[in-house]
Amino acid sequence: MENFTFHNPTRIHFGRGQIEKISSEIPVDARVLLLAGGGSIKANGVYDQVKTALGERTVHEHWGVEANPDYDTLMPAVKICRTEHIDWVLAVGGGSVLDGAKFVCAAVPYDGDPWSLVEDFGSSITSALPLGTVLTLPATGSEANSASVISRRAMSLKLPFMSPFVFPKFSVLDPEATFSLPPRQVANGIGDAFCHVIEQYLTYPTNAAVQDEFAESICRVLIEIGPKTLADPKDYDARANLVWAATCALQGIVGTGVPHDWSSHMIGHELTALHGIDHARTLAIVMPNLLDAQRVTKREKLLQYAERVWQITEGDDEARISAAIQHTREFYESLGIPTRLQDYELTADVAPVIAARLAGRGMGAIGERGDLTPERIEAILRAAA
Fold first, then answer.
1. Which residues, at least 6 apart from 51, have a Cβ–Cβ distance to it below 8 Å?
2. Has residue 368 got a pLDDT over 90?
3. Phi first, then psi: what are they for 13, rounded to 5°?
4. pLDDT tens for residues 315-325?
5. 8 A C-beta contact, residue 286 and residue 384
6. pLDDT tens, 251-260?
7. What are the structural domains of the chain?
């Protein structure tokens, strides 16, 4: 196991009726910015619960944060925070709203160009407004981590940043707040969480037994409850397990002391930036082909994955690896998430463009071993056609 320092300061309030905990988390004299998406929280009753919990606090609101939150959508929220002397940001929504809120919290006290906080992947962040969240879409794990991904559509960019300053102070996870989600968003959340685990687990062995077992258990839970919660959205137990699995997939423990990959995400971000494909669906396009391309360097973990997650024990090593990759592809397809570029009306022509864009930003050698060159990235995408 590699050396690590683990710290996760986010307090989690999980379960029915926990939105009321906002009232004890945010100071009564705080000036609050409520950041939200397109308005679904008003239809499902979450907004009313949040407003009740906020009580008499001064609250300003900023709506319209879209999937893959855009810089130009978020900057007006930064302006509100500065002009209205906001003390706290409360993000109510899915991972995109939460990611956007992290950017707002970091940008408000920053004196320079806020976009530079994203361009340098968060290294310039030295302070941020305190953030609370109410999660309405299980997927990204943003409710309990220090990561964010921000788009700038005017520049066809989608970039991640990280900073310990943007950990939420608290997060409310009420599974009932997710009951009204459309099936496509639920499926995307399952697929996103699954890939988060894979990117931290399917690398090479480091004798990290706890992390491996935890990762494998999250994968098995997602495989089991994914179809259940899609078929019956109001099955509380199934949805509760999805919400918690998605949080656990990316709140730090799975990835401590082990190498990370994240190349599926880096490639997938380019597909979203250029073609607007849902984040989870870009991962489904990339990951099976990337695993196949990396079957030599990921060999030991792929065999472990085959046995422990998919119970594949028959056949020689190559056959078991192939079966595990095929099962992964079929899992995404079973969720209604297509796994080929052609399913999104794209061709292999996108491959050299994306490889060149990554190389142009200094990502010419990605993956846990730094062996995914532009040429190999192009080949992976051509195989995904």
1. 59
2. yes
3. -110, 110
4. 999 999 999 99
5. yes
6. 999 999 999 9
7. 11-177 (3.40.50.1970), 183-383 (1.20.1090.10)
Give yes or no for a contact between 18 and 135, defined as CB atoms under 8 angstroms apart. Answer: no
DSSP codes of every residue in 261-289:
--HHHHHHHHHHHHH---HHHHHHHHHHH
Phi, psi of 373 (to 5 degrees): -85, 170
Given a cut of 90, is residue 237 above it in pLDDT?
yes
- Nearest in space to 181 (alpha carbons), one of 227, 239, 237, 225: 239
How far, CA to CA in Å, does 50 sit from each of 89, 107, 301, 334? 13, 24, 44, 35
With a cut of 90, say whether residue 39 has pLDDT above it: no
DSSP assignment, residue 236?
H
Spatial CA neighbour of 104 closest among 125, 85, 77, 141:
77
Residues 70, 67: Cα–Cα separation, whole Å: 8
Q: Which residues contact 208 (CB under 8 A, 6 or more apart)?
A: 1, 2, 256, 257, 258
Instruction: Tell me the per-residue pLDDT of 45-84, one tens digit each, with 9 for 90 and over.
Output: 999 999 999 999 999 999 999 999 999 999 999 999 999 9
Residue type present at position 78: V
Distance CA 343, CA 354 (A): 18
CB of 201 closer than 8 Å to CB of 216 = yes
> What per-residue confidence (pLDDT) applies to 207?
97
- Greatest alpha-carbon pair distance for the chain in Å reads 66
Sequential DSSP letters for 357-383:
HHHHTT-SSBSTTS-B-HHHHHHHHHH
d(CA 364, CA 372): 7
- Whose tokens are 């994914």? That residue is 226
- How many angstroms separate the Cα of 191 from the Cα of each of 160, 278, 328? 19, 11, 10
- Backbone dihedral region of 312: left (phi > 0), alpha (psi from -120 to 50 degrees) or beta? beta
Which token pair is 4?
């690590």
Nearest Cα residue to 131 out of 95, 104, 168: 168
